[in-house]
Amino acid sequence: MIGDSDDTPLDLAVIGGGASGFFTALQFAEMAPQKTIALYEKGSQFLQKVRISGGGRCNVTHACFDPRDLAKNYPRGSRELMAAFHRWQPSDTIEWFQQHGVTLKTEADGRMFPDTDSSETVIQCFLNLAHQYGIPLHQKHGLTGISRHADGGFLLAFENQDELIHANHVCFATGSLKASPLLHQLQKMELTIESLVPSLFAFNVSDRRISGLAGVSHPQVAISREGHGAQQLGPILITHRGFSGPAVLRLSAWEARDLAACNHHFPFLIDWLPTIDQESLKSRFAEIRQHQGAKYVSNTPIPPISRRLWESLVLSCEIDEKMTWGQLPKIASDRLLTSLKCSRFEATGKTTNKDEFVTAGGVTRPTIDFRTMESRVVPGIFFVGECIDIDGITGGFNFQAAWTTAHIAAKALAVR
Ligand SMILES: Cc1cc2nc3c(=O)[nH]c(=O)nc-3n(C[C@H](O)[C@H](O)[C@H](O)COP(=O)(O)OP(=O)(O)OC[C@H]3O[C@@H](n4cnc5c(N)ncnc54)[C@H](O)[C@@H]3O)c2cc1C
User: What domains lie within the chain, and their CATH numbers?
Assistant: First the structure.
């Protein structure tokens, strides 16, 4: 049972010492230096996900500066974020980091990283600023209880701490709510939570067409769930367990809920040559037969398919290794055509991508005012980052959502 506290209330208690919690705290301290704030983190280290993000390089944001285009990268939350990006978008992120000594560089695909290629640069920047602004940082403070104080603020209880914290406003920056003990607390306050499912994962596939090909990549496929949804375009990577790479991660994100509903067991289709339509490919076959008829089918891959992948696809069509284009019967040629344009695979589970994964689902978006990030259900409580039902595809979009929601919350809180 949460009791009373005699302390003067904090203006703001930030719960969670990850990307969105730190950014809220830093921005709040910059905008309202006269106000009191403290940050509470349940773990023994701050910014753990920032540390491992982007393979240790931290993909801070994405070089996409049009809010409408940027919002298209969020399977959940796109509409709300489009408006939010008018308040804080990647150009603001870049400028803020630059002003605080972290220069970002852009890679060919638009992803932006610190020019040191190290997430430690971001962590040191945040920790130094928190120190400079005098923000009390409490690790090993997992929030376990929250209740209303008689004065309209909140009383917060933390694991293994006797003292209750009294705060006028609370900002939840706890990241994924999956398996979080806080879920119960939030639901007790009548906050609604969209179901929590994984996003950004690789597909487990056991299939002779890709056995022994781990490490082989292909620059562009179109991939779709059989009989459902839109195709996702992008590079694909064959792994020891099946398929990964941007196209797969994109499909996993856009279809996260449906794929969770079938327990990540589902058939899907790969078009290995999405820029060539079926008829043009047929003509290509005819041309090869005419001009290179004596060549073995198995070792004349159609670019950009790699030699090893091509050979495997050809052999799986029961085309003998020594069969030439000139000898290829129509039925085998049709099988190869189908295999190239519409290979069917069966996923039998998922593997979380080591570079980036997120939770889809969280605090229901309509219950939050995205102009302030304040709960419409419990005024005084704010939500930022991944605990909201918002998630992006890979490429720096998830951190951008964290920076944007944190900025909006800090700005609103600074004038309370
Ligand atoms: C391996 C990996 C790599 C990634 N790489 C990238 C990338 O390069 N670019 C990108 O855009 N996105 C990346 N992401 C996604 C990105 O890390 C998240 O979207 C982002 O960290 C969300 O920030 P957050 O502050 O909302 O949550 P988190 O960063 O998860 O922070 C939440 C914090 O709250 C704490 N907390 C939880 N419950 C409590 C409690 N009860 N009391 C107190 N504290 C609590 C947690 O311990 C944690 O420290 C990656 C994710 C993973 C897993």
Answer: 10-197+356-414 (3.50.50.60), 201-352 (no CATH)
